[in-house]
Amino acid sequence: FISSGINAEYGYSKDIDITDSDNVRGFAAAAGVPDPEKLFEFSRGPEARQQLIDNTKEALDSKCFGAPWITVTNPATGRREKFFGHDRIEMIGWVIGKEYKGHTPPPPL
């Protein structure tokens, strides 16, 4: 889930170019990705390419009709649930058993 710091810096309304690798590196750093360069290296490799192909096929097979299209697996039942739209994050939290505290939760005390 998006932390308040990430949302404030990289929120939807910022109109940030996600094709610019420096912007993506900044987002990765703000999100706490331990090794952004390793992530970039992986993203250019054959395993990531195949995962993209597989995910695209799964989305089309499940009648995906927009973005974001999110598929999650309920850890208790193994059932896969599909969601459309960022306004469904609260429901996703319910499915995976995590409490959703909003896009910008208050900072820890």
Helical fraction: 40-55%
| Low-confidence runs of at least 5 consecutive residues | 1-6
Order of SSEs: HHHHEEH
How many individual β-strands? 2
Shape: globular
Number of helices: 5
Please characterize this protein's 3D structure:
By secondary structure, this protein is mainly α. Helices cover 45% and strands 9% of the residues. The chain has five helices and two strands. It has a two-stranded antiparallel ribbon with strand order 1-2. Strand 1 (69-73) and strand 2 (80-84) form a beta hairpin. The longest helix has 16 residues, at 46-61. The protein is globular. 0% of the residues are buried. The model is unreliable at 1-6 (pLDDT under 50).
List the helices and strands and how they pair.
Blueprint: H1 4-10, H2 21-30, H3 36-43, H4 46-61, E1 69-73, E2 80-84, H5 89-96
Antiparallel strand pairs: 1-2
Question: Can you describe this structure in just a few lines?
Answer:
This protein has 109 residues and is mostly helical. Helices cover 45% and strands 9% of the residues. A hairpin with a 6-residue loop joins strand 1 and strand 2.
Annotation keywords:
disordered N terminus; mainly alpha; 45% helix; 2 strands; 109 residues
